[in-house]
Each structure stands twice: as C-alpha cells, then as structure tokens.
Amino acid sequence: RWMFLAGTFPAVLYFILLFFVARSPRWLVKVNKDDEALAVIEKVNHGADSRRTLTQIKESISHEADSKGVNIFKQPYFKLILIGVAVGMFNQFTGINIIMYYATNIFRDAGFSNESAIGQTVIIGLTNLVFTIFAMFIIDKVGRRTLLLVGSLGMALFLALFAFASFVNSFGTYFQLIMLIGFIAFFASSQGAVIWVLLAEMFPNSIRGRGTSIGSFSHWFFNAVIAFLFPITVKAFGVGYVFAFYAVTTLISYFFFKKYLHETKEKSLEELEKVMLEKQV
C-alpha cells in the first residue's frame, strides 16, 4: 500500500502546478478575451510581434471554422495522418516500454541476481528522469527533428551492441547494463521528449485534435502489441534477436524522420500549418 500511497505525491504536485499554467491563447481568442491572449503571447514569446501572432491566430480560427468536417483521409491531410501513425509506431519499435516493463526480467536473464536486477531497474529509471529533464532544456534550442535524428542513431547503436552482447555472452553483465543505460539516455533526450511535442505541432489547426489523437492511439496500440509479443518472441528467438529487431527498426526510423519530418521549433501553430500543408502538396 505504501507504493500506491507514494504515487499520490506527484499527482498532488501536478494538480498544484496546473494553477500556474497559462491559458491557451487560441482558446482565449475563441472566447473573445483578446487582451488576455495578447498578454499570454507576450509572456511566452519574448521579443516576438505579439499583435501579428494574435492576428494570425484569429485568421486561423476563422479558417478552422470554415473547414470543419474536412476529410482527414484525403490529401493533403492523409499523408500527415500516416506520418503521425508512423511516429507513434517507431517510438514503440525502439523497445523502450519493453525495457521499462521487463527490465528486471532482462537483467535477471543477463545474469544479475534478483535483488541486483531490481537495483539496475532503478538506475534505468533515474537515467530516464535525468535525460528527460536535459531534453526539456535543449529541445527549443536544438530542434525537434535534430533530436530525433541524433537519438535514432544513438539508440540503434546501443540496441545493436546489447543484442551483440546477448549473442556472444563474453562481455559480462555490466556491459549490457551500460548499453541499456546508453539507450535510455538517447531515448529520453530525443523521442521520449519530442514525440508528444511533435504530435501536437505537426498537424494543421483544422485537423489537429483528430490528428494528435490518431498519433497517440498509434503510440499506445503498438505499445500493447509489443508488450504482448515480447515474452512470446523472447521464448521463441531469444533476447538477442528481439533487440536486434529493435535496433533495425530504430535505424529505419532515422531515414523516415530525415525524409518526412520538418523542423517545427520557433514557429507558431499558424506558421506551422502553412509549412506542413505546403510540404504535402
């Protein structure tokens, strides 16, 4: 029961911090609170032309109202929907949640004792936390696309090394631990932080709600598939082959992101809408 009680503290903290989150300028414009929307824009975007941004928001909302009922399965929207589905899929095909769910089993199979395996899982969790915070500080400076590209290469490398170590069994258990820590560091500082920001930014305003929902559904759908299949595939093929598969799919994601994703940093949702639609035409 103490474990569940401990979960209430971050929940309460989250609730308190919500009172310090600014209201969405788009929502404020929709309810005719332009002055408050302008104040939020000025607070969030220092040095930007706030009134120009406000005008763009109004034009976008007007266009959004005119385009209600747009068919997301027709161009130029359908391609963006497929990209959103692929982003969610590739996120799970890194094997990230397999490590989070089955870390203790993986370390135990690698040769760690039960107590030691649990301790390594804690290290994995702390690594995820530290590098997620690191990503928060650099995402707007480095850019979403750049983080995804660098992260994909780093993750693929560490996954491949972990798989190789599983095949040869001559590097020792701590080598595999280091490989997973390296993987988690690259994931947390790239896809772990970027995917939700990207899914919220990549769709035009007229389909953003539906597009983001489909991308999120893809993420959790493939999470369920991977989590269900992991024990079966490990039993059939072994840990090495499973992680080799993750390494290959993660490397493929690098080329996918490089070709189909566009940088979204330092752009308003209205600017992104124009860029994304132009790219799909």
Structure notes:
This protein has 281 residues and is mostly helical. Helix content is 80%, strand content 0%. The chain has 14 helices and no strands. It has helices at 2-6, 8-17, 25-30, 34-44, 50-66, 77-92, 96-110, 114-142, 144-168, 173-188, 191-201, 208-237, 239-260, 269-280. The longest helix has 30 residues, at 208-237. The protein is globular, with a radius of gyration of 21 Å.
Sequence-ordered SSE layout with sheet pairings:
Elements: H1 2-6, H2 8-17, H3 25-30, H4 34-44, H5 50-66, H6 77-92, H7 96-110, H8 114-142, H9 144-168, H10 173-188, H11 191-201, H12 208-237, H13 239-260, H14 269-280
Percent helix, as a range, is over 70%
Number of strands: 0
Beta-strand content estimate:
under 5%
Which structural class should the secondary elements be placed in? Answer: mainly alpha
Oligomeric composition of the shown chains: single chain
Question: What spatial form do the alpha-carbon principal axes imply?
Answer: globular
Radius of gyration: 21 Å
Unreliable stretches: none
Indicate the mean pLDDT.
Answer: 85
Ends distance: 55 Å
Q: What is the H/E order?
A: HHHHHHHHHHHHHH
* Main sheet makeup: none
The total count of helices amounts to 14
